[in-house]
Fold each of these.
Amino acid sequence: MDIGSELYRKTLLTISGNSLVEKLTLKYGGKLAAKFIASQELGGALQVIGDLNRKGILVTLDHLGEGIRALSEASGYREEYIRLVRGIEQAGVNSNVSLKPTQMGLALDPEACYANIRAVVREAAAAGNFVRIDMEDSPYTQATIDMVKRLHGEGLTNVGTVIQAYLRRTQADVRDLIQSGVNLRLVKGAYKEPAEVAYQKKSEVIDNFKAIIRMHLDQGVYTAIASHDDTIIRWVREYASENRISQDKFEFQMLYGLRMNEQARLASEGYRVRCYVPYGKMWYPYYTRRLAEKPANLMMVLQNMFR
């Protein structure tokens, strides 16, 4: 990443890690966070999904939460996700499911985490739905990949994960996971990582992002490209056109609250578009990562604050 944007990202993530800043934001920032959070309750999130579907936009629904301190919390999240899967089916909306491994106990007990996630994936399989296991920071990368491959080995193939372009290991992981038949969501990456683990220059991240997108498209593997970057979106459209890759072979993924008009426009042009819709009360870590991605997100929140 370039020096300015990386300094901004690191600074904001550092500030947001301050306990006083977190306390004040949780107390006063709920209305501002609503820009990026669909609802604090499942019912409100399902209504948002229905509205997006009517615009031709697909959805991935995420119940916010990560970094739990006790396995009892993980059990609560597991039950909420089972309720979430059933809620999607009952509402008749078009939405996948997204969850975080640490939310299910990965940092506390990997086997308990696996059992919790397997219960959700099984529930989704019974409903004909798909579960995306999010990729968190690098200490959890290998464990997350191993978990997804283990689920596939049990015949639960309705599960995939996320690959981050800024990690140096990424191309090797993509080759392995494509061969294993694992559906991947391709992203740049949003966590604070050291130089020995992740590329620090924006140009290097972009080059690697394009490389792993090509690896998918060239092999005819369904490709989920998560980006708000016009340069990336335009490049994918041109690459697909030049190589006669049909629009049903890939999808663009964007976040709720960001570039909603662009999401609707792409959908109206016949592209598959999926919106990542988070809901829940544990919104602070997700919210701060969104603000840290680029100054424009912070400016948008500040403008809303003073209106």
Amino acid sequence: MRFFSSLLALGLAACAWAADEDDFKSINPYLDSDMQSRWYDFGGDAIIRTDSYIRLTADRPSQMGWIWSRVPLTATNWQIESEFKVHGKNNLFGDGFAMWLTKERAQPGPVFGSVDKFEGLGIFFDTYKNNRPGVVFPYVMAMVGDGKTYYDKDTDGKTNELAGCSARGLRGASIPSMFRITYFQDKSLKLELQYKNEGEWVLCFEVSDPPTLPQAAYLGFSAETGELSDNHDIISISVSSLYGPPAGSTNNAGNNAGSRNHKMSSSRSKKSGTWTWFFMKIILLGLVAGGGYIGYTAWRANKRSHRF
């Protein structure tokens, strides 16, 4: 019985560890009860408003703020989903914010508040047009940096753009603004946006042969303002490891992944589910073994009583 109890405790502890690992997948960026963040560092002008949002910059000139994960993402295939809000009181506004998945982390700089010549992936939500004739802003684009190439700020990144799309109405949207980026190594990189109607995902771009990204990269968000300004808020972040095409990952409207999440909703990955099922089997085997041991002990005791 002591063996059975120990086995059950081990299985429950392992399941708790798997659940905790899955909690990391949701990467909660808010503060805990000790006024600390388990998974994130903050810097610059970023502020946290209880459990409502992280404001990378306020609607004031010359601000810069960032948030970076402390632990790198090492999954080969993954999906990142985030709710955000870009808004302000002025008719003229800027400059925008970026999502990063790079080798370096927490280094302020001139590219939407983060360092230039980065190595990894940058997704730029650019709200201020410098010099891109014929392009409607806000403009969302991807760039894969090699650690040596500068972001071409004068042309809003056109020189080194991997893919992008115009997103008129993204700033100040009346519904929850969200993006979902899905990556399968050497197969596809896809970005979808929600800003027109709730539950309707618009395909921004899909690259069928994307460049290789770093095997271990830190997830970050940063924003900056110049003479013009805006509020750049990150409301929720969800990260999942993928083992096959995710359900509802196409660009049609009204799938369950597109419905609005609760603030900091948990994103259950197949990996953690596999681990949980593995340890549940250990528990079941322990139950069978324990039951067999108890039955055998009872049979031996009964046999002795008949002999005497």
